[in-house]
DNA sequence: GTTTAAGCGAGACGGTACGTCAAGTCTTTGG
DNA sequence: CCAAAGACTTGACGTACCGTCTCGCTTAAAC
């Protein structure tokens, strides 16, 4: 699938300029006041160029976050399950709210309303990390740290849930101690003998 | 604070019409395409009347949800803690996503970006229910069903978190069985002996 | 026509306050920005009270000018025809543009577009003065200063015309010398023998 | 000042459509009820496009009249001074009130209140014609038909004044006979020996 | 002296148009 | 043929006043 002669070739410098402008404008005015027009003007780029390559404002920001975020498909495995889980949770927190002005929250908000964006957000940012998370839990099962029949779906809900809970309620992200408490509770729930 | 002697008073019929129009338009086109203009037109009301009494589109929807939602300050207490908790969780779910077209999700999304709306949303919809929830947990502590030193903040995060988690990831709300599993895990975590 | 039983009891103090507020607001912001709402607020009066007694903004200003203007049905007759005519012209100038911020010009403008107001303006301000003017010319005819067959309609057009001409072209009203020149020309035209 | 290399250029078709819509709407409802919104709707044009190129409703109408009006910088000179002057006066009358519904009067009215519009109106419509008029009078002086010291400013006031006088008083424009009478009087005034 | 109906202030109401903003599309010109 | 520039249509925004309409209160006339 290499481009043929005279094939349309995307300008990498424009792409960079657009992402940079987006990042700056988010930092200055917040995601809420981010407009395509402003991005185009700041990046020195025609609006057409933006619309040619991205379907929406959110998609640009998504690409920005994706580039910034750390990558790594294999889960960390230090042997300390709780610590590894905390690192994984922290990674998601850092994507969504590394700083007050960062666009992660705005992107989450927009994705609630825009199914297409929501899908892209999950596919590119969320699900790979969930998958890594589950891998780590399965490794724990293999190591005998968790029962083989532990309900990993419930574990996901319980561990990632608080992040979104606090996001939704403007409560500020859980700090390190609270993360530890959450993880400790969940691990206890998974290992404690079930009633009956 | 009764109105002064010469105060012209608010028209209850307009208020009703505005809320009704809002509800209809959400049902027809979704919260996303809801506009003040359309509400005014549908309600047969001047835009000014809307702006006089509500600061934003979200505020109208908030009032709509608030009126629709069930009220009740005292927590249910049937003796069955898990069942009572499930009822309380279900109540919040029903406010946010009673139906696909209901505006709860849109309102949540908007409140993420609009601090004023977020504050109002928490004050009027969320916090009263959290308070009720905590009351029920305290009653359980008094009844010896939960340890006196159980961390209720963590319990809140663990129980409400999944709702927002699933909201954020477009996963659909937990069904009754999943709710039960979540609650069972959390109760186990709260009652299981702590490590160390 | 004394008021019958149950006659409307108009509040003279409100009327005064409205005219005073109108005058002030014209002075401050110009006729253009004059609004009924502002008049009502400044006068400490309900809008209803204004609409009860005046059909339009212009009608209020007309009443204001009418009260301010000098009255006098009999024309001045000092024997000096040119001087008397100049006094009569000056009187009209003083009604329309006593000062830069005065509402006379605005009223003229509005009356061009509002037939009802135009009619009222002519009846109450213009025509009485035209009638007086014609009387003076007729006195001049009787005194032999003007030919008996002088065309008084043309004289009116020629003498009052320049006022409106200059108004329309934002040229500033004719000063005393220019008025004299205009009058001298017209009197010459009226007395000069017609071409045969 | 030709447009830069990458300049998108003004749409002539939009401009035409806007002027046409303006003309139609004036004919149908009169200048008074002319709104930018209606023009945009009728012309199938965005309001922004109108605001981009014209500062006000009046400016559009001015451009409309300017396009419609006859052009011609050199004054007519048939040798018959009175007839030439009448033609020049008639030209101004035809611009302002060619028909009952024409927007000329409204434009005059608005220009009385809007200095910017007034300036534009004079520059584009009035002053060129005044200049032509003065040229013709100077030609008459050269031809010995008028004294070299005739006061042309006074002549202007006396000849154009009646037009605005009658406009202001809703009297209807002078017909051909009255125009002749006015011109005859003024020429007599200019040629008659001065008193003293 | 009461009664009582009008005028009154206040201001909410349904509307119309305003002038602005940003969206997404289209057109022109240049590299 | 991509990209920049920016003009275009569209549609919603929030505001300003319009002229109308209830409200209670005040007040002068009629009883």
TrEMBL record, chains A, B, C, D:
Q: Keywords for this entry?
A: DNA-binding, Transcription, Transcription regulation
Query: Could you tell me which PROSITE patterns the record lists for this protein?
Result: HTH_TETR_2
- Which residue ranges carry the DNA-binding annotation? 35-54
Q: Which Gene3D superfamilies match?
A: Homeodomain-like, Tetracycline Repressor, domain 2
Q: Which Pfam families match?
A: TetR_C_11, TetR_N
Keyword Protease appears in the UniProt entry: no
Q: What is this protein called?
A: TetR/AcrR family transcriptional regulator
